[in-house]
Inverse folding.
């Protein structure tokens, strides 16, 4: 495939530097990530997956963690960006590439909108496909509950939740934030059933989740 046909949009304008600096001043956050250079398409794919599965976002490629402009140094790096989006992610996310020029350096802005087909998975170094979510400025592997929640959200809007003994047992043990494993042990329900029920309860607003101490916690709303 010819380089010019890779859906890259080049932006060349007088205000490139001003625009870049305004973005950099925001720092890294839920919808923005800095990448000093592209040396591994798989790592870049994680950020693409995380943005697509959460609120969308943009990657500023050629920007150091401290905000200094380093620039994209070769066409090989640009090629790996496209690999990250179109080879190492499944399903293929929607993504656009803009190129800005400042201080003699080329910065690529990869913009990833939220995907309507979640989860968008990224291939890791061992060839496994994993879904990521974006929490603050980190890309976190999605929990089994998130995967079930995405499946739940694809059901017809008229679907309702039926309260039964299993749900009552689940709610009874959730008097404080608990991990998935703690809920399984306390409720004595099968793990797959707990995952499904938690996803449904989150979908209907009865349960919420948070990420704390490198683990996901679930609690009543």
């Amino acid at each position: 495939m010819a380089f010019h046909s890779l859906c890259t949009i080049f932006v060349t304008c007088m205000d490139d530097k001003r625009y870049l600096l305004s973005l950099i001043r925001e720092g890294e956050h839920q919808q923005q990530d800095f990448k000093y250079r592209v040396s591994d398409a798989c790592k870049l794919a994680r950020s693409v997956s995380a943005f697509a599965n959460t609120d969308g976002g943009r990657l500023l490629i050629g920007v150091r963690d401290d905000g200094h402009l380093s620039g994209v140094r070769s066409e090989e790096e640009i090629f790996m960006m496209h690999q990250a989006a179109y080879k190492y992610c499944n399903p293929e996310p929607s993504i656009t590439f803009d190129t800005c020029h400042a201080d003699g350096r080329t910065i690529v802005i990869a913009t990833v909108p939220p995907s309507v087909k979640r989860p968008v998975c990224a291939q890791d170094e061992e060839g496994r496909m994993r879904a990521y979510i974006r929490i603050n400025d980190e890309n976190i592997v999605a929990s089994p509950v998130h995967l079930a929640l995405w499946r739940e959200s694809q059901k017809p809007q008229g679907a309702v939740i039926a309260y039964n003994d299993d749900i009552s047992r689940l709610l009874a043990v959730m008097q404080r934030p608990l991990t998935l494993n703690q809920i399984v042990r306390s409720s004595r329900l099968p793990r797959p059933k707990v995952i499904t029920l938690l996803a449904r309860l989150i979908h209907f607003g009865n349960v919420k989740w948070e990420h704390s101490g490198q683990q996901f916690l679930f609690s009543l709303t």
Notes: The chain has two domains: 3-141, 144-220. Residues 41-53 form the longest helix (13 residues). The mean pLDDT is 87. The chain has seven helices and eleven strands.
